[in-house]
Amino acid sequence: MMSFVSLLLVGIMFPAIQAKQFRKCELSQVLKDMDGFGGIALPEWICTVFHTSGYDTQTIVSNNGSTEYGLFQINNKFWCRDNQILQSRNICDISCDKFLDDDLTDDMICAKKILDKEGIDCW
């Protein structure tokens, strides 16, 4: 009984990240503000997200000593901070775990910064 109460308290104190596995049409609606940004049409964004994360907000991939997070696979070496790379440039000024939830607002803001600085080939 004691372990159940402990587990319940942990669940209350640290709620789970609300992740989402998007469907293509649903994601198109969410990303509609990205359409045309930097000359990139919405279908290209949808294709890019599919090939980087499979439309899954909790995708985490290790890549050559760094880690990439979320739908857009945003890298912790340059764009966000985590406890893995303490000297991250953190250009988007955000914790990497923010890219793992179902709110894509911060993901899209950072993706636009990446596009402005690196172009679509960054993906």
TrEMBL record:
Q: Give the range the annotation lists for the signal sequence.
A: 1-19
Organism classification, top ranks?
A: Eukaryota, Metazoa, Chordata, Craniata, Vertebrata
Looking up Pfam families in the UniProt record yields: Lys
- According to its UniProt record, where is this protein located? Secreted
> Might you name a Gene Ontology BP term for this protein?
defense response to Gram-positive bacterium
Q: What is this protein called?
A: Lactose synthase B protein
Keywords on record: Calcium, Disulfide bond, Lactose biosynthesis, Metal-binding, Milk protein, Secreted, Signal
Instruction: Look up and give the organism this protein is from.
Output: Arctocephalus tropicalis (subantarctic fur seal)
Metal-binding is among the record's keywords: yes
Please give one Gene Ontology molecular function term for this protein. calcium ion binding
| Role description | Regulatory subunit of lactose synthase, changes the substrate specificity of galactosyltransferase in the mammary gland making glucose a good acceptor substrate for this enzyme. This enables LS to synthesize lactose, the major carbohydrate component of milk. In other tissues, galactosyltransferase transfers galactose onto the N-acetylglucosamine of the oligosaccharide chains in glycoproteins.
What the entry lists under InterPro entries is as follows: Glyco_hydro_22, Glyco_hydro_22_CS, Lactalbumin, Lysozyme-like_dom_sf
